[in-house]
Amino acid sequence: MNTEITATAHDTQSQNGGLWSGGLSPFKTSYGKLMMWYFLLSDAFTFAGFLIAYGALRSSMDTWPVPDFVFSLFPGLSGSHPLLFVTFMTFVLLFSSFTMMRAVQEGHRENKSGVVKWMFLTILGGAGFLSCQAWEWSTLIGKEKMTVTRDPFGAHIEKGVYLHIDGKEGEEIFEPGKSYLMHQLGHGHASEGDHAAAYEGPGNYPDAIVDDQGFIHRRYKVLEGPNAGQIKAEEFGPKAFGALFFFITGFHGFHVFSGVMFLTIIMLNVASGLYVQRRNGYEMVEKIGLYWHFVDLVWVFVFLVFYLL
């Protein structure tokens, strides 16, 4: 009797691939893919915490920079093109998700050359996105002078009119919510009007305040509300904007950079034939594909929060 029970248990264990040796895969998936899902879940909570913090800080501020005004430049084009460049960035990254999907499909077919081709295109897409982000950062830091502690993008909370150099009211009337960019001496944009162009060189500015870092705080007269008639000067925007932008987009950019590195290593392994003998549908390609799709999905939420809302 005992012999029959032992034999039956041994047969069942053999059929299941060894119960105590990891033969039964939970959720009918491999250990590697399961651990990747665990990592992505924890990373999703991290990004969610950052974006929730952004929303909480933004809702607590009286004013917040308008994305259409902040992100309006496009390399090689003059004038204002609101969100055009970041839309191009998003397209590049999302297209790389398509090429990654094709690499996984070719892996299931055990087509080594197809996997290499589509992974290479995915790497190009990731590198292109990082290049776009580098241009955006260099523009905000070098041209607009934004840092993690200084935000030159502000917005008015009252209706007013800018003053000319001679102290008289000009024709440039603004409404609450009107965005502005504070320039440093020698960094004004002549296209923004004579008032901005007048601050190109050093000198006396009786109707503007120049701080110790050379930033020009344009003066204006309040036209409506309890402060009507008062003379005020433009102030810096909320510090949290620059800090949150660089930290969250930088954290996402680090994920993209890491993904490009892993994709390159795995593509070289595929090209060398390392995964051919495994005959598992190039599971390693599928695992890095899960990571890459996650990175693309996170960018959709970052794009929504920073650039559209």
Describe the structure.
- This protein has 309 residues and is of the alpha+beta class.
- The chain folds into 2 domains: 27-148 and 240-308, Up-down Bundle (Four Helix Bundle (Hemerythrin (Met), subunit A)); 153-236, no CATH class.
- Helices cover 54% and strands 9% of the residues.
- The chain has 8 helices and 7 strands, in the order H-H-H-H-H-E-E-E-E-H-E-E-E-H-H.
- The strands form 2 sheets. Strands 2, 3, 5, 6 and 7 form a 5-stranded antiparallel β-sheet that branches.
- The longest helix is centred in the last third of the chain and has 33 residues, at 239-271.
- Residues 1-20 and 189-204 have low confidence and may be disordered.
